[in-house]
Amino acid sequence: MDFDKNLNMYFHKDEFIFAHDPEKKCKSGDIVLVKELPERLTRLITHSIQEIIYPLGDITDPITGKKVVVGKYRDEIEHTNKLYGKSDKSFSYEKAPPRGRLEGTRDFTHGETYIKYHEDGKDQPFAV
Hints:
mainly beta, two-stranded antiparallel sheet, 7 strands, 9% helix, 23% strand
């Protein structure tokens, strides 16, 4: 959050960090620990990924050790579902396919992505 002294208001400010992940161990949505590189790897890449803190969907409260979903513990959600009945449309962790089930399939993640600086009319499937 940035504070504007003239308007006396806070404005949300996003910051994008491009990090190097040579082993491709991260997936979209993971919470990771990044470390600034001593010198830039490329024009955009200024950090490297140290470790995955929490994989997507597997956030654990460090104090209690319980699984967390948004702002509630998973066991509290299950208890509420038992009291009031579970919706047919609700998400089930038991029925959900395992994360990484599409690993090894050929989608657009198998190719190196690059930033598209121009439109030349050619097909550019890996451009960002």
